[in-house]
Amino acid sequence: MYGDLLEVGRTLLCLVLAGATIKLMDDYLDAEYDICRGKHTLAVKLSRGTLPYALVLGLLAAYLNLDITISVFFGSYAAGMLTTWREKLPTRVPAFIEIIVAFGLSTLLVGWHIALWGACLMAMFDWLDDLVDRMTDHKTGQRNMALRIGVVETTLLTLIVMCAAILLNAWWTALGFIALTMLTMLSEATTSTLWQALDEDNGVHL
Description:
Shape: globular
Low-confidence stretches: 195-201
Distance between the termini: 46 Å
Radius of gyration: 18 Å
């Protein structure tokens, strides 16, 4: 019994650390955009220190469960480029080529079953985020999945990949939702807006 609880805790912590790694890297890439919106994420506050900290978190996640970390990382990498799959990246190749390479590497390293689970899980979370942020992204000129193909279509795709993730590994998927909730709460706690910063500077407490 205690062995099962320990494994559950280990898997959940791995998902939280892997998710935090991805979140930090994503926020680091979006730092200029967030600053323009008056939004100071943890990555904005850490500045150049973000990537080293993200690397440490990623290594800890890999130590806890290498297969999950690899599948989630490459799954996030692939899912994040789906909305711009025809654009050319700094490597001078279209995004869809790197999507294929990312999934191929994940499959080679952890097997197609776990690789597909990671891709489905991260696509689901990415598209859920797009649905939630569609109004904000529309105002700021961002074109996420919901804005590109429609809310109904994105919702259906999200449900499809969610069902696929559950069928591939229901237990890991459930823990993934718990990890997402924890990371969302942590992100909200460590993110401040321009108005909050001004209030703090003026000594105003709401």
